[in-house]
Design brief:
CATH architecture: Roll
Number of strands: 6
Strand order of the largest sheet: 1-2-4-5-6-3
Oligomer: single chain
CATH class: Alpha Beta
Number of domains: 1
Length: about 160
């Protein structure tokens, strides 16, 4: 498996980074949202949450997830750790579209919980606000079914050049 990953990273590096791979896939008519959603479904946590990518554009991503008994804490509100995971995925997906490297990791993530998430489905909108060579800063907001902002976050991603 290590050799396979190394080969993939070499191809991504040759193409000028993940952002160019995504752009080329879109140019070729490949449904990148479908591919990413299939990858998300392979992770048990994201399956539990029921999160899906709705759209992905250069520097932005929009995700959706349902109100579900599986992700609640007492008093019928979505668990803060679940919210953090969705935010991480959303900003990380937006970062993919500007990533000139072969991979990325979350370096820092700060969240303000403004309102309890009680009325879904919930939409998470993320965007890149600054893309450097090594660090990318993004932000995200989660809205409830009434389009009320419930969560605001900002984070930094480290770009792995390979």
């Amino acid at each position: 498996m290590g050799e396979f990953i190394s080969n993939i990273q070499s191809i991504v590096k040759e193409m000028g980074g993940l952002k160019n791979v995504i752009a080329k896939a879109k140019e070729m008519g490949i449904n990148i949202v479908e591919i990413l959603n299939n990858e998300i479904k392979k992770e048990e946590l994201y399956k539990l949450i029921g999160v899906e990518i709705l759209e992905i554009n250069e520097g932005s991503a929009k995700l959706i997830f349902p109100y579900s008994e599986k992700i609640l804490r007492r008093n019928g509100m979505v668990n803060g750790g679940i919210i953090m995971s969705v935010i991480d995925l959303a900003i990380g997906t937006a970062v993919l579209t500007v990533n000139e490297g072969v991979d990325q990791v979350t370096a820092e993530l700060k969240i303000n919980f403004l309102e309890a998430l009680r009325k879904g489905p919930f939409v998470c909108e993320a965007k890149v606000i600054r893309a450097g060579k090594t660090l990318v800063v993004g932000e995200a907001e989660i809205y409830d079914a009434d389009r009320k902002i419930c969560t605001k976050a900002i984070g930094t991603w480290y770009i792995i050049r390979g």
